[in-house]
From TrEMBL:
Cytoplasm found in the keyword field: no
Matching Pfam families: HATPase_c_2, SpoIIE
Annotated SUPFAM superfamilies: ATPase domain of HSP90 chaperone/DNA topoisomerase II/histidine kinase
Name of protein: Anti-sigma regulatory factor (Ser/Thr protein kinase)
Lineage, opening ranks: Bacteria, Bacillati, Actinomycetota, Actinomycetes, Micrococcales
GO MF terms held by the record: phosphatase activity
Cited PANTHER family: STAGE II SPORULATION PROTEIN E (PTHR43156:SF2), STAGE II SPORULATION PROTEIN E-RELATED (PTHR43156)
Length: 722
């Protein structure tokens, strides 16, 4: 280490009161101990001299980094006290005590230790696993050599310890990369995995995934910084893509042309090119200026192979999934009707695996006489044919209901539609033809289940008929529960045959009170392989019994999320929730341009509306804060105009931000200052009473609800707030 490098250790040794320690005055130290101390000072590796049976610590400047803020107080103290948190570990105290008592040297490779460096958990390195209690879980290569006196007794143990956490962390990062890429199917998912693991594997200050851009820019970039710790909600967001600068684009182009990684002279930049099918991609790591260690270079090859293969698969998957989801979601209504007297919301979740469109559908529209028609159904099967038939049946149901809303008439009309479709498809695309594939024709086996109903918004009278479809659930509000009714129940009603099969579908009549809610769903919500249907129904009833107060929007979200989290998802699912709005329902909406200055304009608009609605200042602040975060996310992630809607139902303000989505193209030039996201969605979730996000045919919708107090307004019926 030399005199300069060992200056602090020499100073501490020179000014310590050794007479107050078990070692005694410095002048009385045996020459063998002095010689060992000189070796410690000159060694470039972290070394401690543990003296006597109390293991009094003397250590060089390289060793102090292992102690963190325990230095310099640890100098001259007993190792038993300094590292008390690990002393009883079999590979620490007992090993050192044996070396001292028996005079045997040891070499310990790859020991895992939880070392308290005397710092707060907020000061973590970000390079390896760190528990929340402020300790570091690290890996160390250690050796211990006894220092012998002239008579052969042991004076001290020369303890060399080298932290190998980074090297082991890199190996683990590659292993985690392989495991996580195995289940990452989209380009967005793959890039998130790469950003996480590359930070550890390459000691990155920041890591960027760079892909070719279909837009004006040559390359698009998604970046993550070491200091950035995202919440689960933020992890689920699409990545932020921005344009790549010309200098970095030139570096990437050079690395791709040579087909080998680029390393800057000072080690600050490492660019790793990938082959992605017939295209190219790159990973850019920005590091602290230092030579790149060999173990970092060693993980480049497996990273290149794993990431290139995964991105190639993901590009193909995204193309197929985009087509399937676009077909599925564009056949569903982008918006549902709302009024002062009634509110309705829906959720649709395609099955999590595969790229095949399904046949689940829902719809709602006002009839000429002012009643609301509601439809939810399912075409048997999956694939483009099922989705196409779904769209045709949904359109036919709307046309039939607007012509004659009687359930028997609607069902009869749809029977004829299904018969015609069943006959049409095999004639136009028979099985066995060069263009046909199994499952493209129905061959007399086209079945469609559907629940159709009408709701009178003023009285709550509901008329329902089922063509082979599961009966809906009824969620009771405060008024109904005061009469002794359960929180939720499955309706008992007659079920007729599916559409396309002759039979009678009797009409069922019921009345929903203000605060009650009708919840329709497709069978994918209940049915699981190896289970009886009543098990799924029991699961749904349990979910309904625990349902917190909320609007149709939060109820649809809660039912979908709770059912899929408890039993997984094996088929497409749709949920449709309809309720009579409590007294005092208000609504306001604006379109927000995709510009940063739009955030302030949206806040000002919201404050004006909330003041007009007599919402108190405290609740206004909460709601406006949530709106600010959602509009900011929409500007960053979507890059398109957003539709901001606020609804006031007695006791609840619901805010919805819906965007038009994007294809992952660059949104901002020079967006580095915005690339480190805060905890926006976590904040919204924390300050709101309900929160959710889902995709629609137009893009993404994020919403939240806040229970509010109206200032100077006589409270009306509590409705959904109860």
């Amino acid at each position: 280490m030399g005199e300069g490098g060992a200056r602090e250790a020499r100073r501490l040794a020179a000014h310590s009161d050794w007479a107050a320690t078990p070692l005694g005055p410095r002048s009385q130290w045996p020459p063998q101990l002095e010689a060992a101390w000189e070796i410690v000072l000159e060694c470039p590796l972290p070394v401690a001299l543990l003296c006597g049976d109390e293991f009094t610590m003397l250590y060089n400047d390289a060793f102090r980094d292992l102690l963190g803020s325990k230095h310099p107080a640890a100098f001259g103290q007993s190792a038993r006290k300094v590292v008390a948190e690990i002393w009883d570990d079999p590979n620490v105290g007992p090993l050192l005590e044996r070396a001292y008592s028996e005079g045997e040297a040891f070499l310990d490779e790859g020991t895992e230790l939880r070392l308290d460096r005397g710092r707060s958990s907020a000061e973590g390195t970000g390079l390896h696993d760190e528990p929340d209690d402020g300790t570091d879980v690290g890996y160390y290569l250690r050796s211990g050599s006894p220092v012998l006196a002239e008579d052969g007794s042991v004076l001290a143990v020369l303890h060399v310890i080298v932290e190998t956490t980074s090297a082991i962390g890199r190996a683990r990062a590659v292993a985690r990369l392989a495991a996580q890429l195995a289940v990452a199917v989209t380009v967005d998912d793959v890039c998130k995995v790469v950003l996480r693991q590359a930070m550890v594997a390459f000691d990155g200050l920041s890591v960027s995934v760079c892909l070719p851009s279909a837009g004006p820019a040559t390359w698009r970039m998604a970046r993550r910084h070491r200091i950035e710790r995202l919440s689960p909600d933020e992890e689920r967001l699409p990545l932020i893509w921005s344009e790549l600068g010309e200098d970095m684009a030139a570096i990437i182009a050079g690395a791709i042309s040579r087909n080998e990684p680029y390393l800057s002279d000072n080690g600050e930049i490492v660019a790793v090119p990938f082959r992605v099918g017939g295209g190219r991609a790159a990973l850019v790591i920005q590091r602290e200026a230092a030579p790149v260690p060999q173990d970092v270079l060693a993980v480049l090859a497996p990273f290149r192979e794993l990431v290139g293969d995964a991105l190639g698969r993901a590009v193909v998957y995204d193309a197929e999934r985009t087509t399937a989801e676009l077909l599925q979601r564009t056949l569903l209504p982008p918006n549902l009707p709302q009024s002062d007297a009634i509110s309705i919301a829906a959720r649709y979740e395609p099955v999590s695996e595969g790229t095949v469109a399904g046949g689940d559908f829902y719809d709602s529209f006002f009839l000429p006489d002012g009643r609301l028609a509601v439809v939810i159904g399912d075409v048997v099967g999956r694939g483009v044919m099922a989705a196409t038939v779904m769209g045709q049946v949904r359109a036919a149901a709307r046309g039939a209901a607007l012509t004659d809303s009687d359930s028997a008439s609607v069902m009869s009309s749809l029977d004829r539609v299904v018969w015609d479709l069943d006959a049409l498809w095999p004639a136009s695309m028979p099985l066995g033809s060069p263009r046909a594939r199994p499952g493209m024709a129905f061959g007399g086996e086209l079945f469609v289940t559907m629940l159709y109903g009408t709701v009178d918004p003023e009285t709550g009278d509901v008329m329902l008929a089922s063509a082979g479809h599961p009966p809906p659930a009824l969620l009771h509000g405060l008024t109904s529960r005061a009469l002794g009714k359960a929180r939720g129940e499955l309706l008992t009603m007659p079920v007729g045959p599916p559409l396309g099969i002759d039979g009678v579908r009797p009409t069922h009549h019921l009345t929903i009170e203000v605060g009650d809610m009708l919840v329709g769903f497709t069978d994918g919500l209940l049915e699981r392989r190896g289970e009886a249907l009543d098990e799924g129904e029991a699961r749904l009833l349990e979910v309904l019994s625990e349902m917190p107060p909320g609007s149709p929007r939060s109820v649809a979200q809660y039912v979908m999320d709770s059912m899929l989290q408890t039993s997984g998802q094996e088929d497409d699912c749709a949920v449709l929730a309809i309720g009579r709005s409590p007294v005092g329902h208000r609504r306001a909406a604006i379109v927000v341009p995709p510009m940063p200055e739009s955030v302030r304009a949206a806040r000002d608009w919201a404050r004006e509306q909330l003041t007009d609605w007599s919402v108190g200042d405290g609740d206004q602040h909460t709601i406006v804060t949530g709106i600010s975060e959602l509009i900011t996310n929409a500007v960053l992630h979507a890059g398109t105009e957003s539709h901001l809607t606020m609804d006031l139902d007695t006791g609840i303000v619901a805010v919805t931000v819906a965007d038009s989505g994007n294809r992952g193209e660059p949104l901002l030039t020079g967006a580095d200052t915005m690339a480190v996201r805060g905890r926006g969605l976590s904040l919204v979730r924390a300050i709101s009473d309900s929160f959710g996000a889902h995709r629609t045919s137009a893009g993404s919708t994020v919403w939240f609800e806040v229970a509010v107090e109206l200032v100077g307004v006589q409270a009306a019926a509590r409705g959904w707030a109860d």
